[in-house]
Amino acid sequence: MTFFWGKNSEILFSGWPGTRGGMYALALLLVFALSFLVEWLNHCRLIRPGLARTALHAARVGLAYLVMLAVMSFNGGVLIAAVVGHAVGFLLFGSSVFWTAPLQPIDNDGRKGDLPPMAC
């Protein structure tokens, strides 16, 4: 398998986005949004520990796997959309570029978000 460039590919579902350029652009936007959402879930502070936190972790892992499967279409545009989505998400939510002071951790263990960082 090698990376290729072009709008004629299958991303996530059989026959989608097809051969139309508009549907390919929509698929790239979806991959960007999914990777952006994964970064937001990595750095958000929505809930306290408990069962809801487990559900949030499951959603984050599921979305991350969807992004991974989209990249495994070996389409260069999809790879770029995923990387840019993660980068923009980290820039807005994980870096201190737009914050005047560093985020204060919610938990006593020093974590800044609801979930621990994803690790391989």
UniProtKB/TrEMBL annotation:
InterPro entries: Cop_transporter
Any one of the GO CC terms: plasma membrane
Domain of life: Eukaryota
UniProt keyword annotations, A-Z: Copper, Copper transport, Ion transport, Membrane, Transmembrane, Transmembrane helix, Transport
Principal place of residence: membrane
Topology within the bilayer: Multi-pass membrane protein
Segments crossing the lipid bilayer: 22-42, 63-93
Subcellular location: Membrane
UniProt key word Calcium: no
Stored Pfam families: Ctr
Molecular function in Gene Ontology: copper ion transmembrane transporter activity
Family: Belongs to the copper transporter (Ctr) (TC 1.A.56) family. SLC31A subfamily.
Protein name: Copper transport protein
Species in which this protein is naturally found: Musa troglodytarum
Taxonomic lineage of the native organism: Eukaryota, Viridiplantae, Streptophyta, Embryophyta, Tracheophyta
